[in-house]
Amino acid sequence: MRQTVIALGAHVFDVQVRPVEAIPEGQGAALVDQIRFSPAGAAAGTALTLAKLGAGVRTAGAVGADPIGDLLLSMLAAHGVDTSLVVRRDDTQTSASVLPIRPDGSRPAFHVLGANIAYGPDDAPHTEIARTGHLHMGAPELMGGEAAAKILAPARAAGVVTSADLLASGDSNLFDWIAPALPYLDHLLPNEEQVLGLTGAATLEDGARRFLAAGVDCVAATRGARGALVVTADEVIEVPAFAVDVVDTTGCGDAFSAGFLRGLGLGRSLRECAVLGCAAAALVARGLGSDHGEFDLAAADAFAATAPVLEPR
């Protein structure tokens, strides 16, 4: 069964350097084990893992008319992602990040917003969206809630399932910025830090319920080594993370989103969707970059059935 998804929004070209414990001073240099690059971003990164899991995927967004954009799109295409809906910009570069990966897998980022912030409702392929089964919006905060609603509302009216993930870290002022889009989201897929920061809530469940009150039907939030929490009006579901040797956490949130959305497309329960999301995130975390791993749906399901889980902390 193939699920058709349009992943719309942030397209980022990532350069990963590992391991980095400190930035050399002055003109100093340091030897590292790996330097590589990969497609990333809340739209492109999610699309890549969705394609691995067997979904039919198209991406929509903006990249520069530059070599970085050429490479980003070619790498997505190599994974089976249709990039024909992506707009090329002559006046700005492709969004990109340099990620120094610490030995524990965590990483800061040096980031250029680039073409991502030049994309809005007038660029969106509304006709194609209305024909798809699922619209996933990566980083709606980049265009703002009112602009995002102009894309999400007609999609919902056409019977398209909608979801979104966030790119920005949690900031209480951001909630009002994205609020106009929330009533048009079936699923919101943030991380715990974003939920707590955006809502000011004391607990993740309380924060998720604020999003429900604003119109979202389901919040599936990642919690790092503690797995995920899914909250709807009727249930709260805790799913543990899988125990793996973490190399790099880049793209794990996008991989969780992809697994969760793939589960939805296959008609799985919310718990099963979150388990698949945690499995995809764990498989990506075992190597460098958001495109790590040659797994497919069968491999992810097998991993979820046999891999040990982390005990709650």
Description of the structure:
The chain is α/β, with parallel strands linked by helices and 313 residues long. The protein has one domain: UDP-N-acetylmuramoyl-L-alanine:D-glutamate ligase. The protein has a nine-stranded mixed sheet, with helices on both faces. Strands 3-2-6-7 form a four-stranded mixed sheet.
Produce the secondary structure layout.
Layout: E1 4-9, E2 12-18, E3 34-40, H1 44-52, E4 56-64, H2 67-78, E5 82-89, E6 96-100, E7 110-112, H3 126-131, E8 134-138, H4 145-157, E9 161-165, H5 172-178, E10 187-188, H6 192-199, H7 204-213, E11 218-222, E12 228-232, E13 236-239, H8 252-265, H9 270-285, H10 297-306
Parallel strand pairs: 1-4, 1-8, 2-6, 4-5, 8-9, 9-10, 10-11
Antiparallel strand pairs: 2-3, 6-7, 11-12, 12-13
Radius of gyration: 18 Å
Strand order of the largest sheet: 5-4-1-8-9-10-11-12-13
CATH architecture term: 3-Layer(aba) Sandwich
**Helical segment tally?**
10
Strand content: 15-25%
Q: What is the tally of beta strands? A: 13
CATH superfamily: Ribokinase
Low-confidence stretches: none
Taken in chain order, the helices and strands follow as: EEEHEHEEEHEHEHEHHEEEHHH
Quickly give the structural class.
Answer: alpha/beta
- Rounded mean pLDDT is 94
Range of helix content: 25-40%
Give the N-terminus to C-terminus distance in angstroms. 37 Å
- Count of domain modules: 1
For the sheet with most strands, the description reads: 9 strands, mixed
Query: How does the overall form come out from the CA principal axes?
Result: globular
CATH topology: UDP-N-acetylmuramoyl-L-alanine:D-glutamate ligase
CATH class: Alpha Beta
